[in-house]
Amino acid sequence: MSVTLTLDSIRLPRGTLGELTLRFDTGVHLLTGPNGIGKTSLLNAIAGSLPLVSGRMLFAGEPLDHLDAQVVLAPNSPPEMPWIRSGLLLDFITSLYPRSRRDAAYAGQVKQELGLGSFLDAPLGTLSAGTARKVLLAATLIAAPPVLLFDEPTNDIDVASIAAFLGFVAEAAAQRVVIMTTHHGGDLGVLSPVIHALESRAGQSRVS
Asked: Residues near 20 by Cβ (< 8 Å), separated by ≥ 6?
């Protein structure tokens, strides 16, 4: 199975990217570039939480439909809900993807290998930054729609969890588009990603 996400002459309301055209085929893609250029904004736009100024996004040749649960984002920081039980947040996110979410056995494996078992009953606000991030990574992997977005996924994560995460991503990317932002691709290089180096160019963006 092969899927394609296309960004056609899009402009974002934030960052220093100008007009941008990109194609993401099945597999892993890394977005790199300096702080403030708009990497996170680009992920938010693909996820549907940041409206475009202009341009369009296509999935499999059709307009990307954010109401059709085609995209999930693991953000760089958790939502401002410190009181919510971590496991409840994970379950809520995955409940939004009834057609694609993985089965209970896979979900249990993700939670175990990311070391979340003893933290799922804890309020989100009591978790360390790394553990909170792992909750969001787990939810994204389990939701498993055709497009998976990860914003700086390995920040604050222990070495064992990074290795487990990369294994899950490699499996998911065989049939999905996986897009990650990063400032240092060292950990992610084992995934043999396509690297999109974003640069500002006087109102028009270049991808090198």
From this structure: 7, 9, 10, 11, 12, 42, 55, 198, 205, 207
